[in-house]
Amino acid sequence: MKANTNTFFTFLMVAAVLAAPAMAAATFGQEKRFNSPGRTTYYIDSGKGDDNNNGTSPEKSWASLDRVNKVVFAPGDKILFKAGTTYTGQLKPQGSGAQGKPIIIDMYGHGSKPRIDGRGAVLDTLLLENVEYWQVSNLEITNLGPTRENWRTGVKVLADNSGTLHHIHLKNLYVHDVNGSLDKSTEGCGIFWQCKGKTPSRFDDLLI
To answer: Average model confidence (pLDDT) for the chain?
Structure first.
């Protein structure tokens, strides 16, 4: 009986040691994410913004796509990029809206559409993956790399093992200079939507 007890406690100690790195990693990952309270308007200005700001007014705007990508947005939120500004990299927003309370990406101010430029460093400049109730309007999107790349896109809307995703609206976007592959089996796209995975997935109310 004593041997069994010692074996049991040894097992518990080993399990605790194995779990500790996983817990630490999970905590570290959570520190990089921020949950929006919902119905909040966020402003992004690459010229005068600062990612240390709270982002909730033009005077306290954020500066980068990385800061936007760290937030899990909630129903009713708005993400507004300043007219005439440019951003490099990938915009991959997190979170979902709800019926009657979509999450909105748009521009504020006067001037040209805000430009999101993947520069060929990312496969998709704007990626909406397994999210729903989003409306994206009035952006310029490009993804021009030094050489062509298989499946390179400007905008990708993806349902991956997700079931039914609702209400994705893309309006008044200027998508250009996306040099994906010219091969029909791996072609690049300006705007590309895809349903895949073992779980049947589809879009309900996809508007482009």
So the answer is: 87
Tokens standing for residue 185: 């089996």
Query: How far is Cα 140 from Cα 172, in angstroms, rounded to an integer?
Result: 9
Residues forming a β-bridge with 54? none
Q: For residues 98 and 84, what is the distance between their CA atoms, to the nearest angstrom? A: 30
- Count of CA atoms in the C-beta half-sphere (13 A) of 42: 31
What are 17's two structure tokens?
A: 């040691």
Q: Give SS3 for 102.
A: coil
* Integer Cα distance of 115 and 138 in angstroms: 10
Residue type, 135: Q
Domain map of the chain by residue range?
A: 1-32, 35-207
Residue holding tokens 């993804």?
A: 143
pLDDT higher than 80, residue 97: yes
pTM assigned to the model: 0.83
pLDDT digits (tens, 9 = 90+) for 101-138: 999 999 999 999 999 999 999 999 999 999 999 999 99
Alpha helices in the chain (DSSP H): 2-31, 65-69
